[in-house]
Amino acid sequence: LMLAPVPSVSEASADVSMKEEEELCQAFSEALLTVQDVDEQDADLPQLCSEYVKDIYNYLHVLEVQQAVRANYMQGYEITERMRALLIDWLVQVHSRFQLLQETLYLTVAILDRFLQVQPVSRRKLQLVGVTAMLVACKYEEMYAPEVGDFAYITDNAFTKSQILEMEQLVLRSLKFQLGRPLPLHFLRRASKVANVNSQVSTTPTYDEAHLKPIMQHIAKNVVTVNEGKTKFQAVKNKYSSSKLMKISLIPQLKSSIIKNMAAALG
User: Fold this and answer.
1) pLDDT of residue 37
2) What is the C-alpha radius of gyration for the chain, rounded to an integer number of angstroms?
3) 224-233, pLDDT tens digit by residue?
4) Helices 126-141 and 102-116, interaxial angle, to 10°?
5) Distance (Å, rounded) from C-alpha 267 to C-alpha 258?
6) 228 in the same domain as 165
7) Which of these, 105, 97, 129, 107, lies nearest to 116 by C-alpha position?
8) Is residue 52 a part of any domain in this protein?
9) Are residues 151 and 229 in the same domain?
10) Which residues form the signal peptide (predicted)?
11) Other C-beta atoms lying within 10 Å of the C-beta of residue 91
């Protein structure tokens, strides 16, 4: 009779290690299953892409880095951040006038900033860039986009249709036709869905206080500036004071001491 060879010490150790590894993997899998998957009930809703949604958001995080907007990119520009604020305040009103999707406004601002950081423009052409950014965003997001003539009209014909179309080509070439940068709205909706189910879902990236606090302070400072009438840019507050948007800009919490203290921390 031939006896089976006795395993060497190294082989026996390998078997033990493999068994331990399998047990560890099994325990880890079971631990993951105890965290509720916020997408598990969406299989019958194809528009929610539950099978791919986690990969999609991982990809959006990559795109956010690849297509980043630099901080203080307007330093040394002819245009100033106040001019940008004036333009966006006006674009918010145009967006409401045209009754466009929320995504369209966010994408407009993203296109505007990504273009300006690679292509400085004169003060005279800033509004032209703004309406062109909204035209491109409309074509990307809207089912029925306003026509070029509508954008010329909304500028009180300060710019012609041909000027807008020419600027559209420049914007698209400058951005290399890459318009898929994720918007704050995308992550906000994802975070809201997670928060409604389980605030500790492991598949959603989280940020610690060191990341969040400075941003919260800047948001608080903007809220205080608007509520105390220290700026004439009121389009966003007016927009969110409508019943359609639940009058969210009028809630008393926005005037609380917590908000004021957070804003004061910035000086």
Assistant:
1) 75
2) 26
3) 999 999 999 9
4) 130
5) 15
6) no
7) 129
8) no
9) no
10) none
11) 22
Structure tokens at 158: 């300060």
Residue entry with tokens 């395993």: 7
- Residue 179 included in any domain: no
Count structural domains, the chain.
Answer: 2
Instruction: Please give the pLDDT value at position 255.
Output: 94
pLDDT at 126: 97
- Considering the domain architecture, whether residues 150 and 239 belong to the same structural domain is answered as no
The enclosing domain of 243 has a CATH number of 1.10.472.10
Consecutive H or E run containing 121: none
Q: Whose structure tokens read 């493999």?
A: 18
Which pLDDT score, from 0 to 100, does residue 199 have? 44
Would you state the structure tokens that stand for residue 56, as one six-digit string?
Answer: 């999609």
Can you tell me the distance from the alpha carbon of 141 to that of 92, in angstroms, rounded to the nearest whole number?
16
Cβ 231 vs Cβ 238: under 8 Å: no
C-beta of residue 111 within 8 angstroms of C-beta of residue 137: yes
Q: Give which of 51, 38, 33 is closest to 190, Cα–Cα.
A: 38
Q: Residue 36 is encoded by which pair of tokens?
A: 């509720």
Sorted by sequence, the CB contacts under 8 Å of residue 60 that are 6+ apart come out as 182, 186, 187
The SS3 call for residue 124 is helix
Question: What pLDDT is attached to residue 201?
Answer: 46
Identify the domain containing residue 115 by its residue range.
68-174
| Residue matched to tokens 């957070």 | 262
Query: What residue ranges of the chain have pLDDT lower than 70?
Result: 1-17, 23-36, 197-206
Is 154 part of a structural domain of the chain? yes
Are residues 225 and 146 part of one domain? no
- For residues 160 and 81, state if they share a domain: yes
- Which helix (H) or strand (E) segment holds residue 74: the answer is none
pTM above 0.70, yes or no: yes
**Residue among 249, 221, 224 nearest 235 (CA):** 249
For residue 41, give every residue at least 6 positions away whose Cβ sits within 8 Å of its Cβ, in sequence order, or none.
Answer: none
